[in-house]
Predict the structure.
Amino acid sequence: HALEDADDEWRRAEQALSGLGAAIDSQFDAWGLTNAEREVAMLLLKGLGHKQIAAQTNRSERTVRQHAVVVYNKAGLSSRAELAAFFLQDLSLPARDV
């Protein structure tokens, strides 16, 4: 029974994350991000630094920084923190029974 409950929790979490992923993808479309910009933006949202993104994407750190600046400009934001906050600002925990 505990294993079934864990499986149910996992499925609900996957569905929620899938919905968030779709919302992020839709917003990236609205901002007109290129594929390279989208990749950098997603890795920034995941918490990676410019150097880590450069290594993971086989780009120079300078190129990653340039992509990040373009992402922020297209989004009307000024930092990685604002990028994350954009997607989390309306997120709230469901009401819990006390």
In short: The CA atoms of residues 33 and 66 lie 13 Å apart. The radius of gyration is 17 Å.
